[in-house]
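> forwarded from #structure-qc
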């Protein structure tokens, strides 16, 4: 683990996906937004809390647009830039799109952060964009009280390949492509108790591009995709359940986890965002009797640059899972299913 001269996480009150406004707050802010707009070509907007906006350009092609930025989740500036860029680009992959360019979003307290550190943040983000095959074509920067970095990302998508979070079907299998526990690792890092091996594991998963989403969207058996970020697995699964009008059942014992997530949780390492998430949507989640708090906190743990949650035809699930693993996502697991019923998430253990 690098030891930078400035601890970026000490300059921010939160970090990564944990910076997001709680789902309940977002609902208050956006609850008055019209569910339909006079823009017929805006085929995905705010109605289901999907990962990106989508504009239908012509009969074949859509434009996918998103933005994502946050405060430091790690102290190393280059790693911070890489994680933030990977996280932002993920929204395009989650819609089944192909990113084509990015714009940088930068806020820096210039009286606290030297310019060489700022350059390292930007270089980290640019390196990920280069891996994704896209340029950082511009951006905007301001002087802020806390460090902020992210991207606005533009992508394209064939209309037939567009995948929303709201098109899961009853009887679908659910697959998660990355392990859970990033928020726990981030909290441990701020406490100074995250091991070097765990840090390496965290960087590996948070800088792994979700480009498999573009490939999966070409398969008609894949019905819905969303990425799991700041609202935790439960929050993003609940968005899929509500958007699709069905119930989601998750198996708590089969979830992919970062190796030290459970031991850290049992030590009481948890983010504040985990509790805010549960307060926001816990009344729509059914837990088993005597389900311990540490297990619930794992399900609400805010993920930074998390994996894709995929709803697909059950008879194709094993083949699709093998495809995902072979593409470089060894932690991918089949984690649940969908059922007809009132929108909710039920946990089985």
């Amino acid at each position: 683990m690098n030891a930078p001269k400035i601890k970026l996480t000490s300059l921010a009150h939160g970090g990564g996906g944990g910076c997001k406004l709680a789902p309940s707050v977002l609902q208050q802010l956006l609850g008055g937004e019209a569910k339909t707009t006079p823009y017929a070509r805006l085929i995905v907007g705010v109605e289901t809390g999907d990962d990106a906006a989508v504009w239908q350009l012509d009969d074949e092609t859509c434009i996918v647009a998103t933005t994502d930025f946050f405060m430091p989740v790690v102290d190393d500036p280059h790693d911070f830039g890489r994680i933030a860029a990977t996280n932002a680009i993920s929204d395009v992959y989650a819609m089944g799109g192909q990113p084509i360019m990015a714009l940088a979003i930068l806020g820096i307290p210039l009286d606290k952060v030297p310019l060489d550190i700022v350059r390292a943040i930007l270089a980290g983000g640019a390196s990920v964009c280069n891996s994704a095959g896209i340029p950082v074509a511009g951006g905007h920067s301001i002087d802020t009280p806390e460090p902020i970095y992210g991207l606005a990302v533009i992508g394209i998508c064939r209309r037939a390949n567009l995948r929303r979070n709201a098109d899961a079907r009853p009887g679908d299998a659910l697959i998660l492509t990355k392990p859970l526990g990033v928020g726990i690792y981030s909290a441990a890092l701020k406490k100074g108790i995250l091991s070097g091996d765990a840090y390496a594991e965290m960087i590996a998963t948070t800088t792994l591009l979700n480009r498999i989403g573009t490939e999966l969207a070409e398969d008609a058996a894949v019905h819905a995709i969303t990425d799991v970020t700041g609202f935790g697995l439960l929050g993003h699964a609940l968005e899929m359940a509500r958007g699709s009008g069905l119930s989601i059942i998750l198996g708590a014992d089969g979830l992919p986890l970062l190796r030290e997530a459970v031991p850290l949780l049992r030590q009481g390492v948890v983010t504040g965002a985990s509790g805010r998430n549960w307060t926001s949507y816990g009344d729509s989640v059914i837990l088993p009797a005597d389900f311990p708090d540490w297990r619930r906190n794992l399900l609400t743990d805010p993920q930074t640059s998390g994996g894709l949650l995929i709803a697909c035809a059950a008879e194709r699930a094993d083949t699709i899972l093998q495809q995902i693993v072979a593409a470089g996502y060894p932690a991918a697991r089949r984690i649940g299913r969908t059922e007809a019923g009132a929108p909710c998430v039920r946990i089985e253990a």
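QC bot note: The CA atoms of residues 247 and 343 lie 5 Å apart. The radius of gyration is 19 Å.
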